Amino acid sequence: MESATFRDQVVIITGASAGIGHAMAVQLARQGARVAIAARRAECLEELAAACRASGAEVLVAPTDVGEESQCKALVDNTLSTFGRLDMLVNNAGLAASALFDDYHNLDLFRHTMDVNLFGAVNCTYYALPYLKQSKGRILAVSSLGGKTAIPYNTPYCASKYGLHGFCDALRMELKPHEVSVTVVCPWWVATEFHAAQLNKDGVPRGAPRGKDYYTSKTMTADRCAEIALQAAYKRRREVLMGPGLLAVWLKLIAPGFLDWLSIKIFLEPAARRAREAQAKRE
Predict the structure, then answer these.
(1) What is the CATH number of the domain that holds 186?
(2) pLDDT value, residue 213
(3) What pTM was computed for the model?
(4) In which domain, by residue range, is 169 found?
(5) Active-site residue set
(6) Which stretch of 30-34, 72-76, 82-86, 99-103 has the lowest confidence by average pLDDT?
(7) Is residue 15 part of a domain?
């Protein structure tokens, strides 16, 4: 991607405190964009803002819980008050709760996952849309291959990501007359804090050591994922599937039962085995 692709563009990034969102903010800052960075962890946002400002970027720090509609409205309003326009919204905030569906004590974690992953994007998009229409801007949604093909132990996450895809696909058609693009990127495994923050049935995060056990030396970095996502948004692409995404979508059409088996044997079981082996070494 060219070094000045998003120069002078105003971009809101949710989930910016870590991982892919953090990497996108740094890359956009280096390209000369003006960024509004949003997440719940204010101290992490301040550290990110310092890094972005070191590249000469203008930065708005906006502590935000995207699951709260009023905070999403405030995020957009503050961005407009600070920068006067909006060119791109990056709906990146997300989390996961992992357990057998009937092992959850109640549906609170399920609803919380939907509130952040799906309604967080809906909330931000609703309030950003009038300004994106004015600028003929872009919406970039960071989804997952879990939004194209499901895996067990992830019912809340997959439900939220399937919903995000449906929302974006319908919205894309509605916004075509306004020349606002909607790009959905579907990462595979990316080495971030995501799995460390993944919640169990009791709402307790795995923690850093256990979260990192799922990755290998070949796992995509957050920087590379961010680069692919931003390039796709710039080119106004419809959808980007990473890793085995194209194969998974194809198999889902012609051999869904085989895909279910493959997801468990090739994806889930090896990841769980790596985690168990790493845990045994620490004990």
Answers:
(1) 3.40.50.720
(2) 63
(3) 0.91
(4) 10-247
(5) 157
(6) 99-103
(7) yes
